Amino acid sequence: MSANRNNLTVKQFAKKHEAFSEGSLRFLIFNSKERKNSTGDKISGNGMIEAGVIARLGRRVLIDEARFFKWIDQQQPESPS
Fold first, then answer.
1. How far apart are CA 45 and CA 24, in angstroms?
2. What is the pLDDT of residue 64?
3. Could you say which of 13, 15, 52, 64 would form a disulfide bridge with 8 (CB–CB 3.0 to 4.6 Å)?
4. 63 with 54: CB under 8 angstroms?
């Protein structure tokens, strides 16, 4: 990890950025992994792992603040020209 990363726990991130509740962040983290539905069909992850937004240390999940907001920006549809 780079020394200039600002990693926050889910609780710290939610406290600093009140627009995101702990529950909504945990929902995003849970859905970051590829998984299967009840019929065995593959459900793609949301891209947070690939974007380097979350880091796991044992059970602790850290969110890279700058990468999170960059990932959010990438989720927005392109505006028509």
1. 15
2. 97
3. 13
4. yes
Select from 44, 49, 52 the least CA-distant residue to 29.
Answer: 49
58 Cβ neighbours under 8 A, 6+ residues apart: none
Neighbours of 68 (CB within 10 A): 22
Q: How far is Cα 55 from Cα 27, in angstroms, rounded to an integer?
A: 16
Q: State pLDDT tens for residues 11-60.
A: 999 999 999 999 999 999 999 999 999 999 999 999 999 999 999 999 99
- Mean pLDDT, residues 66-73 taken together: 94
pLDDT of residue 63: 97
DSSP letters spanning 15-80: HH-TTS-HHHHHHHHHTTS-EE-TTS-EE---STTTTT-EEEETTEEEEEHHHHHHHHHHHSPPPP
